[in-house]
Amino acid sequence: MNPHISLPRQHGGPANFGGTPPTRGETIRMPRFFKRLFKFPQMDFEMAIWEMTSLIIAPKKVFRSIYYHTKNTWHRPDPSFTYLLSAFLLLTSLAWGLAYADGFGGTVKITLVFIFIHFIGLSLLASTIAYFLVGRLLGPGVPGLPGRRRQGLFAQPGESDPLEFGYCFDVSIRAFFPVWVFLYVIQFLLMPVIARDYWVSLFFGNTLYLLAFGYYTIVMFLGYNALPFLHHTELLLSPIVVLAILWFASLFGFSLPRHLAPILWAGAKLRKHV
User: What pTM was estimated for this model as a whole?
Assistant: First the structure.
């Protein structure tokens, strides 16, 4: 696939969630993201599939290529990626439910938890944290030091290049995709092997978590590094050091798949034969 791509402008308009910035005396309009929430014919699912493929093979291309100013916003008001990943989570939740849940009600519970708590809920939480911390600590300031800048959910007259909550959400949901691949798909397929009492199983199982959360950190970094008005974004890579230390310590007997598998986050239990 080679979708048509517009290049970013280096200086954009006010912060919003994909809405058109209001002029003086004009009320704030509903963000375009919400306006397009159920307009499926207008969604670019082809671009969403291209993004997902690139997030695993070459994640830098995603933010370097598709994030551009559309009516003065860095946020891309197209929920196609959210819908597509939710559909994939639906399929994987059914697989986890059939394998480990007790009955139809347990499978429904796992499906709701996977989509609305693991994916949407954690992405909103990560977006909120990044929105308040990244914009304040990594904005322009004294050369060589983290700066501080103002940001807002919606447009503020006279401001330029603020950090948008919509963009933070864009980054968070895309960072979740590698987590889905490693922990919801690959881990499910390998669970009967990696959850056994062998050191090799321990090594490969725990390495899946290192790859998943390491990829998550890298995608988050690339997302904010693509914004020209943020500085010192390399600080966002620092959790990788902590993850590597925890991964090494876990090799001495703590099996992450047996204690942190997504099915356990949903309140279900791994069956004894695993």
Answer: 0.79
